[in-house]
Amino acid sequence: MTDTTAIQRVHDFIKQAGTYYLATVEGDQPRIRPFGTIHLFEGKLYIQTGRVKSVSKQITINPRVELCAFQNGEWVRVTATLVDDERIEAEESLLADYPSLAKMYTAGDGNNQVLYLKDVTATFSSFTKEQEIVTF
């Protein structure tokens, strides 16, 4: 599977699931919360949050995260490092894909934060099929 195919597959699965759960670490305490943004931009997967939120501060200290999405009896678990992309173009692209965020965020507002996933390992699983692992 090419990187492009793997990235698209992970994107499509998470997007169709609608909600995924992002895990970070705060000190020695795991933290997990629901997220809903997943976006393809310039061949990379992006998520979004607010810089004032605890999750942003946790990612700044330790950018290694895991996320998990579930749909139709299957799930994907993604391990990655998040990289902050401060470019206006990245912010605008993600916000255009999620117009509902316009009430809370605008590109360049200093709070809107978009991050891309790098060093990704995605494990697709179910109770009825063999695991499949993709990396990019």
Please give the CATH class: Mainly Beta
Percentage of residues in DSSP E strands: over 45%
N- to C-terminal separation? 10 Å
Number of domains: 1
From the spread of the alpha carbons, the general shape counts as globular
| Total number of strands | 8
Structural class: alpha+beta
Q: How many individual helices?
A: 3
- Provide the gyration radius in Å: 15 Å
Order of helices and strands: HEEEEHEEHEE
CATH topology: Pnp Oxidase, Chain A
Q: Output mean pLDDT.
A: 97
The CATH superfamily is identified as Electron Transport, Fmn-binding Protein, Chain A
Low-confidence stretches: none
For the record, the CATH architecture stands as Roll
Helix residue percentage: 10-25%
* Largest sheet features: 8 strands, antiparallel
What would the keywords be for this entry?
Pnp Oxidase, Chain A, alpha+beta, 3 helices, 136 residues, 8-stranded antiparallel beta sheet, 8 strands
Describe the protein's architecture and organization.
By secondary structure, the protein is of the alpha+beta class. The chain has one domain: Pnp Oxidase, Chain A (Roll). 24% of the residues lie in helices and 46% in strands. It is built from 3 helices and 8 strands. Strands 1, 2, 3, 4, 5, 6, 7 and 8 form an 8-stranded antiparallel β-sheet that branches. Strand 1 and strand 2 form a beta hairpin. The model has no long low-confidence stretch (mean pLDDT 97).
